[in-house]
Structure formats: C-alpha cells, structure tokens
Design a protein that fits this description.
51% helix; alpha/beta; 24 helices; Rossmann fold; elongated; six-stranded parallel beta sheet; 3 domains; 530 residues; 9% strand; four-stranded parallel beta sheet; single chain; Serine Threonine Protein Phosphatase 5, Tetratricopeptide repeat; 10 strands
Length: 530
Amino acid sequence: MPYAGRLQSQRNAVAQALLLHRQGRVDEAEKIYLTVLADRPDCAEALHPFGVLRHQQGRNVEALELIGTALKHAAKSADILNNYGLVLAALGRHLDALAYFEQALAICSEHINALNNRADALARLKREEDALAAYQRVLAVQPDHLGALNECGGLNRRLGRLEAAVACYDRALAVAPAAEVYVNKGTALRTMNRDREALASFVAAAALKPDCAEAHWNASLIHLRRGDFVAGWRDYEWRWRKADWAARRRNFAMPLWLGKEPIEGKTLLLHAEQGLGDTIQFVRYAPLVVRRGADVVLECQSELKALLQGIEGVGSVIARGEVLPPFDFHCPLLSLPVAFATELATIPAEWPYIRSDQQRMARWRDRVPQRGRLRVGLCWAGSSAHRNDHNRSIPLQRFASVLAVNNVDFVSLQKELSDADAETLCQHQVLQLGRQFEDFADTAAVLEMLDLVIAVDTSVAHLAGAMGKAVALLLPFSPDWRWMLDRTDSPWYPTMRLFRQAAPGDWNGPLDRICRELAALVVRRAKTAP
C-alpha cells in the first residue's frame, strides 16, 4: 500500500480505537492501538490515547513512556502536555507534573483540565495559598466547576477561613447537590461549633446517598457532642464502613458482641481500635463485661500493657501483635457503649478505675519533689501525627505566665521533647521526668504523686482523669466530641475541669484563667498548711 494510503488507514484505525475507547470497549481499542504501533512505533496519534488508556488502567509507568514518546514525535499540544503531567501526578511526581501543566497553559491559557490539574498539584505540594488562587483561575473560566468549588472549600477550611469555605460549598451545592459536598460543608460548620446546621448538612448527605458512611459517622460526632448518645452511638458504628478505617477492622472468625448474646461463661476479647487516650477512656467498661459473667481478654497497645494489668476482673492483657488466646466473642472498645446502651446519665462512673502500681511508685518516689509545695504536671502537646494536633497542642512558650507562678514544683510529663522545649523547661526549673518514662505505668506512678495535671487533649489527660486526679484540660474552640460544648466539667471524668478557647486559636483566655486559679490554689494551700 502506498505511504499516503497506509497513513490514512492508520488514522482511520486510531479513530475507530478512540470511538471504542469512549464506548468502554477497552480491550478492542487496545488491540487496535497495539496493531498501529507495531507498524509505526512513532505514531503520536496512537501513542497519546493509548497512554491515556494505560493511565486509566492504573498502569502509569507504561502510560508515562507512551505519552512521553508522543511528546517527542508530535507538535506541542496542550492536551498531550496536560496528560503527561497527569500521569506524573499519578506517580507522585507533583513538582514535575506542575511544570507540564504550566507548559500546557502557556499554549492554551484557558485549558480547563490543565488549570484544574495545576491547582491540584499545588495543593499536593502544600502550597495552599497558591492552590487557592489556581482554583480561582479555574472558576474564572468555568464558574460552575464542581471540583474546583469543592477544593476551594477544603483549602479555605484548612486555612481557617471557615465562612469562605461554607460559601464555596454552597455554590457547589447550588450547581449540583452532592453527598460529598454536604459532608464537607457539615465538617466546616462543626468546626465553627454550628452543630445544628452541621447536623442538617450530614442528614442531607445521607438523604442523597443512604450508604454514605462519612455522613452517618460525622452525624454521630454531632449527636455525641450534643449529648444525644442514643443516636450518637448508633451512627458511630458507621466508622467501620469508612474507607480510611478499613485497615483497623479486625476480621475475626468469632462473632462481634454488641450486648445481645448472653456471655456468661464465655471468653470475650476486648480490643483497642484507636488512640491511647481512647483505650484509657473506654477500658472502664471491662469490669461491666466481667459482671455479666464473661472471662475478659484485653488487647491493647504495648505502651499500656503493664498499666492495664490491674483493671478489675480482666483475666489477661495482651499487647497488640502478641498471640491471642481462644475466645468466643469480640468487641472493639468504642463499641462497648452500644453494648451497654450508654446514655449521658449512665456513663460508667466508678473512680478511679485505673490505679498506679506500688512498685512503680517506689521507683519514682525519690525523683518527684518532696518539698511540701504544690506539685503540678504539665503536658502541652500530643502526637504530631494526630490530624487535629495543630488545634489541640500549645507551644510551650505560651505557658510562661503559668510557669511563673511561685511556690509550685512543675513536672514535665512530655515523653518527646524538642531541644528548644527542653531549654525552656531548664530556664523555668521544670523537672523533666516524661523523657524517662518507659511506658504508661511509669506515667501513672508519677501522676499518683502529683496534686494537679495541666494538659491539652492527650492520653496523659485521660490517664489522670481515669486515676481520679485533678485535671485542668485545655480545649480548642471546636473540641473533640467527648468534651461536648459549653461545659466546664466532663461527664467522663468528674475530677476534670475544662478550660476552653473562646475563639479559634486564642489560648490566652484559658491559660490566664488557669494561671489565676493556680495562684489562688497556692494561697489556699499555704493557709491550710500545718
């Protein structure tokens, strides 16, 4: 066949493959692409769409080679440059991808896919202000672009611009109601403590998509924070259907127990599922299980194993990863409120339910100040891996006024310390014991010898509360569900007082109140001293 005829035949074949590809007949399209490329390996008209097909199949290394070859043999094209960048992004090479999106836009400044992909790359690179501006460019070209509106909402939310976030979500919902956008709007409203509106948004999401786990689970957080435990615990069970919880789900052969089956004479495995603080908070239910006649095996994080050996009635405590003994039923710790139909008035209320070990206390007694002054433990930061840590943790330097209160022996309970924080503690003559803790049994031993713990929302605060110690808990403006709203006390820990931000980011108010009350406590102690 003459060259011109062959070329036209190849073009016709590629056109047919593109049609099959659009119709979802991928196998047939692939065969045609391969046939064309076998005859003409530099055919950009086939290389590019075949690369897109491979990308859609998740075969991105092959896609990159195919589209990269097309770039070498075709005239500069915004479409090819954009798709090459898209494959780079799929391979995690976001900075390289950004360069190709910008090349595509240099050819066609209003290429909507390149504009949106550029914004996505900037967001992935954590250049949030740049990403927000990039999504605004998308919306200047296509005002009803749902993806850009949703992403603008998310970026505004992460940047603390919550009213702007809600406005973006409302614009998206006006274009096309979507469960995901309702969930995102509800999350922003919850962060503003507008719980009634947030709940309505989650309910709207579930109405659109009844199996939307994110909608039901987020609704549960509102119910729980408002004290509606009946609805809250019911919807909290949706956590197991959330995509990001799949790795936590335990696929035991033995059945799940949620309070219905009789368990007298049976062995029940209670297992930790979330953070250290959650385990400490909900292990209070173990004695209730024992009173139903079950033998209890408790599986927990290794850091808690020694501490929880003394929980009333628990037969054995196993660290996660150790071999489990035989059992008849299992229950995740945070499903126990469902099993016991817990309401606000029926939270298990036996304190202390965790006690320190006398031998551990003997190890630490000589290291804890014995000068007769008020002994106060400090914990100002949680794990940096926690997704809300930037809201709950407080820079140590913000505690300067507290540390300046006279006649107080301060003890640092932080296990992990930066060099700068260690230097600050030295300057204020704060005893650094937390760095020496091997596990939470050590933490409990030191807590037992303190008069007060000042802490942010961390596992140390939960432990002090479980031990019946006086706790001053510092909470962000929009706190975790368990601390509820507009309360200075906690139904979970009767010896805990809550010091809340009055506005997002403002720690001065609660720290000033703690400072004044601590100074007054020192004066009262001096008056009652023998």
